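[SOLVED] Need 3D model of a two-part complex

Original post:
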Amino acid sequence: MSANLSTQTFKPYTGEKARISRAYDYLILVLALFLFIGSFHLHFALTVGDWDFWVDWKDRQWWPLVTPLMGITFPAAVQAVLWGKFRLPLGATLCVAALSIGTWIARIFAYHYWNYFPINMVLPSTMLPSALVLDAILMLSNSLTITAIFGGSMFALLFYPANWPIFAMFHVPVEAGNGQLTLADLFGFQYIRTGMPEYLRIIERGTLRTYGQIATPLSAFCSALLCTLMYTLWWYIGKWFATTRYLSNI
Amino acid sequence: MKTLIKGSHYKLNPSMVRLAHHLCPRGYERIQLGSPENGQKDYYGRNNITTVRPEPVEGHHQTPLKCIILLGLIFSVYMLTMQPVMAHGEKALEPFIRMRTIQWYDVQWSKQKFNVNEEINVSGKFHVAEDWPASVPKPEAAFLNISTPGPVLIRTERYLNDKPYMNSVALQPGGDYNFKVVLKGRLPGHYHIHPFFNLKDTGQVMGPGVWLDIAGDAADFTNDIQTINGEMVNMETYGLGNGIFWHSFWAVLATAWLLWWVRRPLFIARYRMLQAGMEDELITPFDRKIGKAMLIGVPLLVFAAYSMTASKYPKAIPLQASLDQILPLPAQVNAGVVNVETVKAEYRVPERTMTFTLKIKNGSDKPIQIGEFATGNVRFFNKDVPKPELGSSESMTSSEGLSVDNAAPIQPGEQRTMTIAAKDALWESERLDGLINDADSRIGGLLFFYDGTGERYISSLTAAVIPKFN
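Solution:
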């Protein structure tokens, strides 16, 4: 079909064809939404996991490093397909929006109603600002290289400041047990997690101590560098594993 | 069966008829589409057919029905016999770890029936075994926890050796500790609760458990905390509205971006246009303007919100990740008054009896008797010695399970070699007898001596176990 199309011979669908084509759009969109809610949420839960589950895991070093790094994967792969085959600059936003839906469903039903944790203890982070910028850079540049370098970097660098308005208030200090804790730490102490002892938290561990107390920017820039590579890797994963060959039969 | 196909001499077999039933429930009409007169072909592309409506094949429709009924029966039996799960895996950890790491004793609960918002505490003591298993990492990070089905209680305070502490702590093998955890009822219900230690890289070593009943209304629960700045916050709802606001804010923007693209024809139309070289029409100049606005506007919004938040919470601190340091108490177990050396331990499988040969030296100034042997939360009592107060803790007890070969009290200064036997089915029901199949088949436990005044002396036992199968 399409291989023989040219600007001169191209005729847009009209009538019944246009209606069927539109119905197909909605069908794919709905399926994609459920697919990404399930698969991206599962991927995110398995890779980012506790850093996103619990308020007392959202530290300055690992949380801003791991979350964007694992969060850029599906957006890159889906962008490769939606941009490469359809020039649709919404792959990242679609994926992250689906992730947000899945995450909120899990936090409300699994963590709150099923396991009784207060929802504020399991508030998810947001990557929507990062995803919007990633989509915009891809659309404006139409370049894998530029999107990987600048989009990937922005995806990581925007993560911590975009989430600080949500989580800063959990870092207010309280006095407890003859020591100083954040409210987030106190959540971890008070609301009992049988399988999650305090020592399991991978927080504030690392070798960023020689830079005073500015661990977060260093972590964010490290994540930015890694995100450029991760973006490229997952772009090609998306490109290799996705196909539009069935469209040729239409 | 009356269906025949002429010309091909082809008889329909029952499976074909079933297929016809499936493909066209009104099979008669569909199969008749082909007729020898007009040369049309039938549904399967064959000529010259004479078709009679196929009769139902006996059993064809009944099979799925039977399957559904069978599944329904299985499901019903399952549903009718369903019971709540009450275990926390107390018996799952290998016996040698349960018996030779954290050795709990004197565990007490202040109350077992209380209301939402009411505080209770669990207190007790534990000895960290000297003979710590080689395959278990040393307890350099241990967390005194409470096994609950979710936070039905909250933990408001916790003490180790009377010192408050919040994080994990390093324990010393051979050390003695006391503990207290203050809990507050949050959700009404009937719960089986244990104190236990999460040991890093090992697992959960359970202490004795009890049933707790929390009455009242969950909606009445409050948990107000004062920050260092003096602000009172409700932990149940703190930050929730703010979090929902920011998630919604970005969700609205993202939805607008998605709708901007979704409102136009998407996949097939755009694919065809892209293939036709009409890429420029897919991204219009106005799209590009919106993209540029997004590229500049989103980071500006992010940093504006970040700056406002940073100025609102100037005293925010990083998450705290320290390890608490609390030294053990002066020796409570193996305190040097009564010394015990384990010569040999045998486990007789058919009799479910653990027999120890011990060399005991009484260094106290009063005659003493062996009153109890405890291991893995199972307590064996000597019926000839007054039983101590058992308290509210429902440790598995064998009230007459401990016997000694010489019941005469051990006199001050006397050294005696004795054989004691701990016999009960609890060895099996608590899965402690699995020790003989473990990679490390050494046993550990605490031996309690009493003098005539009720003074108690505790010694630890440890030995390799030799199984006897007959």
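Edit: Chain A has ten helices and two strands.
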